[in-house]
Amino acid sequence: MAAKKLIKNGIIVTASDQYEADILIDGETISSIGFNLSSADAEVIDAKGCYIFPGAIDPHTHLDMPFGGTVTKDDFESGTMAAAFGGTTSIIDFCLTEKGRPLQDAIKTWHDKSKDKAVIDYSFHLMIGEMNETVLKELPQVIEKEGITSFKVFMAYKNVFQADDATLFHTLKAAKDLGALVMVHAENGDVIDYLTKEALENGNTDPIYHALTRPPEVEGEATGRAAQLTSLADSQLYVVHVSCAEAVEKIAEARNKGVEIWGETCPQYLALDKTYLEKPNFEGAKYVWSPPLRDKWHQEVLWNALKSGQLQTLGSDQCSFDFEGQKTLGKGDFTKIPNGGPMIEDRVSILFSEGVKKGRISINQFVDIVSTRVAKLFGMFPKKGTISVGADADIVIFDPNHERVISASTHHMAVDYNAFEGMKITGEPVSVLVRGDFVVRDKQFVGKAGNGQYIKRNKYGATSQLKQNQTLSI
């Protein structure tokens, strides 16, 4: 049990408020918030000059994940440690299934991967690659026993993860009845397959062709198709890693018609662009992930969508592979470059620095995007995602004025490069608590592998949440 702690002199920021107050933590939860609080047996923590945010929640990570003949470099220990340094106190990782095998087998595999490793709290999404009577019978138990209330369907990666439209539609119908949120990787896998084969036949093998064979139109088309199917099923949809104007347009169009659809973008799409894939000496491979990076003008479209509420969350899509020995597997054939990048550590700081500091979003929107809205959408609110009495004491003490340069030489991920190398940002977590215990204290790791707890999540819509047609008042 965590010892009592009293955080004083900081400015508390939630999705709706900003005020100066003290926070008393008793055990794992916040016991009181007020002015001039005192507690004889509590350790006093001075947060002067800092913001106090609810712990950030990363809704999109791939730790210890097999892909393309290799495995992601960061596992549940290094990945969650890096997340904690970045101000993230909970993650939701993707549990990959295999056709013809029980869903429970895949879930057990992911429990085994994370057991005694995570330093912060964690949960799972479940991939759905096929939909039949066997799968349908398993789903209620997955929700009730495991607390997994979100299902991922891939519309891309033909002959690997891609599901057909019937599977997506059936999943949407089932999720409506079961109280689950369907997530889609929205790219037209069939068209990508055609364009990829064409590129290779023409001898176009460099990393830039990863982007050129996955143009924004294939993301926009798949997003629009998924939105239409969601409307037809009268269900709910969450579009992961939105990268381009074409997809934003389809999400906004559907939301304006009353479809219950939500959109996530990622820091890489807000801060990097397609030219990174053209770096010499095969370094462009460091920036190969899907959807690919876009022309720079898409960035402002994404920022405006976050500001206007047409996109609501920021995932990292953490999926790290070393440049040497993993990314280099694709030399001479861009299709063999493992897709993914190291994003988990810098997600929160980049949004603060590029968003709040540059006036693109308000500080309340920032908290909503990295924490509160995720907690509401994925059945973790109000235990997670806010600073209130009774909530878990997942707290980030954040210095808004500290300037630093992002670099692989100082990051805490296990991977050998940083996608944001050399980027100057303002704002950094100083101390991070998970359920009342320090994981990072004064920028030093003090956590312990295995202290992270598995989160069983509530059904979609079961917790208090903002309906999609309501906007955050700021």
Proportion of residues in β-strands: 15-25%
Q: In this structure, how is the largest beta sheet organized?
A: 8 strands, parallel
Q: Look at the structure and name the CATH superfamily.
A: Metal-dependent hydrolases
Coarse morphology:
globular
Under the CATH scheme, the architecture is: Alpha-Beta Barrel
Cofactor: Zn(2+)
Keywords: Hydrolase, Metal-binding
GO molecular function: dihydropyrimidinase activity; metal ion binding
Modified residues (N6-carboxylysine): 152
Helix-strand layout with pairing:
Blueprint: E1 5-8, E2 11-13, E3 18-20, E4 22-26, E5 29-34, E6 43-46, E7 51-54, E8 56-61, E9 66-67, E10 70-71, H1 76-85, E11 88-95, H2 103-114, E12 121-127, H3 133-146, E13 150-154, H4 165-178, E14 181-185, H5 189-201, H6 208-212, H7 216-233, E15 236-239, H8 245-256, E16 260-265, H9 267-271, H10 298-308, E17 313-314, H11 347-356, H12 363-377, E18 395-405, E19 424-434, E20 437-441, E21 444-445
Parallel strand pairs: 1-6, 2-7, 8-11, 11-12, 12-13, 13-14, 14-15, 15-16, 16-17
Antiparallel strand pairs: 1-4, 2-3, 4-5, 7-18, 9-10, 18-19, 19-20, 20-21
Keywords: Hydrolase, Metal-binding
EC number: 3.5.2.2
Domain Amidohydrolase-related: 51-439
